[in-house]
Structures are given as structure tokens and as C-alpha cells.
Design a protein that fits this description.
Length: 181
């Protein structure tokens, strides 16, 4: 396999974390997540937890995301890692296989509710609006940091709709494809 790393991108609740964990287990690689770092920094800087990306941005050093993606790129360059990231374009495609995940909005909303992203009594309409707002926030960061007009349309090697496949099928498809690279 010529790729030293795999980077998985896509919107919230698209199935990235599950796939990253499963893929890393199958390959015996480590996992790295921009989202985990982002959430930890957000909790540290904005402990009330009720904050938009714009508000978060005003509290965070300007180079936070650039430094984070530099560190993730270094991990990818060294290899043996599956990375969860919203911005795959920060990773070099010469040694990093870029995989995009998405799912229908309804599927993403149900997943986000099931995993506890929202209060238990939230309505589907409220959860849908919250996910749409999160997507807008992520677009804003992508434009501001990486100059991306639409981060969901980044150049990738493989694109999967996790609303149509089982987790096992997703991993199997990518593992089979890697045999022929």
C-alpha cells in the first residue's frame, strides 16, 4: 500500500469516527482526531459549552487550526495512522489517502441524537437546525483557515455514503481497494 495514512473527512454524524476506529483496528494503525482536539480546546476556553464556532474563534489563538493540521500532517507523513478531520485538503495526497464520508441529513440527525449530541427532548427539527448550523460554522472555519469555498467538496480519493452501507462494508470496500493501489 503506497499510502502511509488515511484521512477521513465529512460533516458531523456522517460516520467518520466509527469508520476511523474500525479501519485503524483492521490495519493495526493509530487513530488521530482533529475533532477530539477541537472539543477539548473548546471545553477549556468556553466551559459553558454553549458556543458557536465564531465565538470559539474569538477566544482561540489565530494559528490554532494551522498548528493542529501541521501536527496531523506530520503524523500522516510518518504513517500508520487513520485521521479524522474536517479538512482533508490539509493532508498531502501523495502519502495520505483521502476518504470522504456523508449520509443523508435525516440519518445524520438520528445518529447525532442517538450518540447524545443534543439534549434528550430535542425535536427532529431542532436537531436538524443545529446540524445545519454546525455545518455553516465548519464552512466558515474552512474558508478562514484553508481558503475552501465548500469543504464538503474537497478533492478526495474515495467517497462513501455511510447511510447506504454497513460499517463492515465500508471498511471492506476500502481494504479491498487498497490491495490494488
Amino acid at each position: 500500500m503506497p499510502y502511509r495514512a488515511i484521512v477521513v473527512t465529512g460533516p458531523s454524524a456522517a460516520g467518520k469516527s466509527s469508520f476511523v476506529s474500525d479501519m485503524a483496528d483492521k490495519l493495526g494503525w493509530q487513530v488521530a482526531s482533529a475533532g477530539i482536539v477541537w472539543k477539548a480546546e473548546q471545553a477549556r476556553l468556553c466551559p459553558d459549552g454553549n458556543v458557536t464556532v465564531g465565538t470559539f474563534w474569538s477566544h482561540i489563538p489565530r494559528d490554532f487550526f494551522r498548528e493542529l493540521y501541521f501536527e496531523l500532517s506530520e503524523l500522516a507523513r510518518r504513517g500508520g495512522v487513520v485521521i479524522e478531520s474536517r479538512y482533508a485538503t490539509a493532508m498531502d495526497p501523495r502519502y495520505c489517502l483521502r476518504v470522504s464520508f456523508d449520509a443523508p441529513e435525516r440519518t445524520r440527525v438520528l445518529r447525532a441524537i442517538r450518540r447524545g449530541d443534543f439534549r434528550p427532548d430535542i425535536s427532529m427539527a431542532e436537531a436538524r437546525a443545529a446540524l445545519r448550523s454546525r455545518l455553516q460554522d465548519e464552512q466558515w472555519v474552512g474558508q478562514r483557515i484553508f481558503g475552501l469555498e465548500n469543504y464538503t467538496r474537497q478533492p478526495v480519493h474515495v467517497s462513501l455514503n455511510s447511510g447506504m452501507l454497513t460499517r463492515e462494508a465500508e471498511v471492506g470496500i476500502l481494504l479491498e481497494g487498497l490491495k490494488y493501489e
